[in-house]
């Protein structure tokens, strides 16, 4: 088998986060029908009760933060430490509207949409399947943000 690569993705083609949900139907309904992730595939083992639904979440990244960064993000977005080691973040076009839809569908609001120093509007929720999630709406383009003091990429800092 030939490894697929591109200049944008490198050797990884897809990131898939697998979440076990005790209330499978509720979780699928919440993430697919309310949050709006598109169903890509679904499988059910005949007679065994095993089910999986794969929801397409668009472009994926893996964000790795040190403990100080995690604490700082919690302080900005929530006002106190709250994040477990894993938090799932979804970019949405309208953080206020989508946050309200998720709360109406049963998510617990941890923090309302808050403008961050990195120019996004972020909310925090505890959602089905035990996920702590962030909804974020970018208020500036990546190009605009990288021109701000303190922003950029690690590659930018090491290119001198």
TrEMBL record:
SUPFAM superfamilies recorded: Glyoxalase/Bleomycin resistance protein/Dihydroxybiphenyl dioxygenase
A Pfam family annotated for this UniProt entry: Glyoxalase
InterPro entries xrefs: Glyas_Bleomycin-R_OHBP_Dase, Glyas_Fos-R_dOase_dom, VOC_core
Domain VOC: 11-138
Ranges that cross the membrane: none
The protein's name: VOC family protein
Species this protein is from: Aeromicrobium ginsengisoli
